[in-house]
Amino acid sequence: MTMIFGIPLQAFLGQLLIGLINGSFYALLSLGLAVIFGLLRVINFAHGAQYMLGAFVAMLMLQYLGINYWFALVLAPLVVGLFGAIIERTMLSRLYDLDPLYGLLFTFGLALTIEGTFRYFYGSSGQPYNVPAALAGGTNLGFMFLPIYRGWVVVISLIACIGTWLLIEKTKLGAYLRAATENPTLVQAFGVNVPLLLTLTYGLGAALAAFAGVLAAPVYQVSPLMGSNIIIVVFAVVVVGGMGSIMGAILTGYMLGIAEGLTKVFYPEASNIVIFVIMAIVLLIRPAGLFGRDA
């Protein structure tokens, strides 16, 4: 049997795959957080609830409307993104001129409200969401058995992350978004609808969380607690990557997911805290984060 550092190769690669899968969700969720914070300067504590909403919208679409996974992968992010846009326009936008703490408290209260509502109607236990038939089963790679759906999650999340980065960093719309956060008065003088841009930005961040929720539904059970269980880890990922750094969120999400997976091989007892230990070390050495800009 092939060994790596005294660990069977199959066990090592299996945990590496789990780390990549977790890293895919960390990357997508931290990307949405980084987009909202980087462009709106709002710490969106409701991000975990929006992730949970994506999974529930997909499940309810299937139960009541017969809408399958593939359509839900598009429609659920649109629904949650629209919900986020309405919240931003009607409530969150009123807090931009106040201390950032008010935005944090508002989104924290929003998260508790959404989670509490779903717990009231669906309880705390999870509900299954089946893997689509086209992605069921797995393939034998020789050294390990790869579930097809897990591989799909890694690939599609990477595509979504790179696409979002290109949108913000390489397009005219992205340039408007970045400029609107730096000098909204000047951008508005050029005829750009800055409030609409900010609304679209928050909606995009919420849609990314919902997209991750739909991807997670067949992997984990759909539960009102699924957002609160992951959001603290995602905040740690964003801090390590650098608050507001789009590429930092993507790279750090995958790196910390892999680090967590490999820790389960070499030192399982530390797997639940390794991300926070890394965060503490990074903050001691570089307070702005690995990819953040020093003030």
SS-derived structural category = mainly alpha
Order of helices and strands: EEHHHHEEHHHHHHH
Tally of individual helices: 11
Q: Quickly give the CATH architecture.
A: Orthogonal Bundle
Total separate domains: 1
Q: Give the end-to-end Cα distance, rounded to a whole number of Å.
A: 52 Å
- Sheet-strand content, in percent, reads under 5%
* CATH topology category name: ABC transporter involved in vitamin B12 uptake, BtuC
Q: Classify the oligomer.
A: single chain
Shape by Cα distribution: globular
Spatial arrangement of strands, main beta sheet = 1-2
* β-strand number: 4
Mean pLDDT: 87
Classified by CATH, the class is: Mainly Alpha
> Main sheet, how many strands, which sense, barrel?
2 strands, antiparallel
Radius of gyration based on Cα positions? 19 Å
Uncertain stretches: none
Helical proportion, percent range: over 70%
Question: Key terms for this structure?
Answer:
single chain, 295 residues, mainly alpha, ABC transporter involved in vitamin B12 uptake, BtuC, two-stranded antiparallel sheet, 11 helices, globular
